[in-house]
Amino acid sequence: MLNNPNGQPLNNNTLRQILDSHDDGYVLPREFYASDEIYGHDIKSYWNQNWIWVGHVCQLPEKGDFFLFNYGTESIIVARDREGGIGAFINVCRHRGSRVCVEKSGNKKVFSCPYHAWTYELNGSLRAAREMGEGFDRKDFGLLKAHVFVFQGMIFVCTAEAPPNIQSVTSQIESTIAPYRLDRLKIAHEASYPVPANWKLAIENYMECYHCAPAHLEYSKSHSLKDPASMREGLMEDMHSALEKAGVSTASFAVNGAVGPPVGIDLYLETYPLFPGYQTGSKNGEPLAPLLGDLKSFAGAARDLQIGIINNWLIYCDHVVGYRFVPTATQETDIQIVWYVRDDAGEGKDYQKDDLTWLWHVTSLDDERIIRVNQEGVNSYHYKPGPLSDMEWGIRAFYSGYLNQMKQICE
Ligand code: FES
Ligand SMILES: [Fe+2]
Predict the structure, then answer these.
(1) Could you tell me the distance, in angstroms and rounded to a whole number, from the CA of residue 115 to the centre of ligand 1?
(2) CA-to-CA distance for 402 and 265, rounded, in angstroms?
(3) Where is 364: in which H helix or E strand?
(4) Measured between alpha carbons, how far is 365 from 270 in angstroms, rounded to an integer?
(5) Contact predicate 233/240, CB 8 Å
(6) At the topology level of CATH, where does 167-397 sit?
(7) What is the pLDDT along the chain (411 residues), one digit of tens a residue?
(8) Is 2.102.10.10 the CATH classification of the domain at 52-158?
């Protein structure tokens, strides 16, 4: 298995040749899933340039609360500072580069590097460094900052110098999403499904429901997305009137590369009907938790939200399932799932964790298996990129943003 997280980026000519070898409407060539060098580019030129959903404000209730978000070669400290603001810092010591923080989450007064004890404030500035001699100015050696953006409680981080304008994207959906009160959620459960495959195969799998009918028996009993759009027109009408009764706008959005270039942010918000008898993504169709936010009733709907291809949520009327596909090596990806319920819902009283997580747990086990064997096949020297189905339009949208961004490196 190729497992070197430090693949050095290729020279521009070679990268350009590989990018140009992709045929529109077809899957990507093998290198995109197997080369350490492309993986290096992915981290440096894609993940480090885009906004990444890293968590929720409910994880940082107090001053000094922090958590780490790690991907590829990178680690970001997300912390609430003494003034109550949320900051994000590159977890690399400005002395000799050690990780400064190694705990996953917690509460701290300062961040103290485990190597030579340089100590940083909660806002990233360097507070103390021993024996550095005259002429050393602490002000020059604060932790490098990442940009932070909070949309209705969801925290995004971007390490680019000039990040894409995410606010102009989220402002388009603000009023549509507002009734769900995503800012008033709590985490009911988090799980991680490591899969020995390149992160692009994991995202591609999420971007299409062509595989749902053959691969996801449980999901396909309740979710109409497994069928082509033409088969659910009647259900769509019923769902729209149920959503209106619930007090939610039925607006949908599909904007590829919104507000690009240089880096576009894909925005996607669409709602799919559940089959009759299903109020939410539960085994028996019954509600799993109290209605979210300002909703007045259940609507038998599942809402797909994507703010940038790598940040995904599935919003039901009573819970939200967040999805991340975090690269950890060329062929290692951590599929991270977060289940949210209303912040005042009590476990065991208002919701049962096992019932709440059942569907996306079994579905993710299926996905882990199909993504793993997908990578095994793609690793074959006999692999040839095949044509995409009409039901795989989401993969084309991913390719267009990803390839455009990679091509910019070569210019
Ligand atoms: S590497 Fe952090 S104090 Fe030396
Ligand atoms: Fe799936």
Answers:
(1) 5
(2) 10
(3) helix 353-378
(4) 25
(5) no
(6) Naphthalene 1,2-dioxygenase Alpha Subunit; Chain A, domain 1 (3.90.380)
(7) 333 445 666 788 888 899 999 999 999 999 999 999 999 999 999 999 999 999 999 999 999 999 999 999 999 999 999 999 999 999 999 999 999 999 999 999 999 999 999 999 999 999 999 999 999 999 999 999 999 999 999 999 999 999 999 998 999 999 999 999 999 999 999 999 999 999 999 999 999 989 998 999 999 999 888 787 778 888 888 888 899 999 998 888 887 766 555 567 888 999 999 999 999 999 999 999 999 999 999 999 999 999 998 999 999 999 999 999 999 999 999 999 999 999 999 999 999 999 999 999 999 999 999 999 999 999 999 999 999 999 898 999 899 889 988 888 777
(8) yes
Closest by CA to 368, choosing from 249, 174, 196, is: 196
Which among 89, 111, 113 is the best mutation to test ligand 1's pocket, defined by most ligand atoms within 8 Å of the CB?
A: 113
Which one of the ligands is nearest to 374 CA? 2
Distance CA 185, CA 344 (A): 8
User: What is the value of pTM for the model shown?
Assistant: 0.95
How many other CB atoms are there within 10 angstroms of residue 200's CB atom?
25
Q: Are 315 and 180 in contact (CB under 8 A)?
A: yes
Residue nearest to atom 1 of ligand 1 (CA): 96
Is residue 116 lining ligand 1, measured as CB closer than 6 Å? yes
Tally of helices (H runs) and strands (E runs) in the chain: 11, 17
| The residue type at 280 | T
Domain positions in the chain: 52-158, 167-397
CA of 160 to the centre of ligand 2 (A): 31
Output DSSP code: residue 226: G
Cβ neighbourhood burial of 156 (10 Å; 0-12, 13-18, 19+)? buried
Looking at the DSSP bridge assignments, the partners of residue 55 are: 155
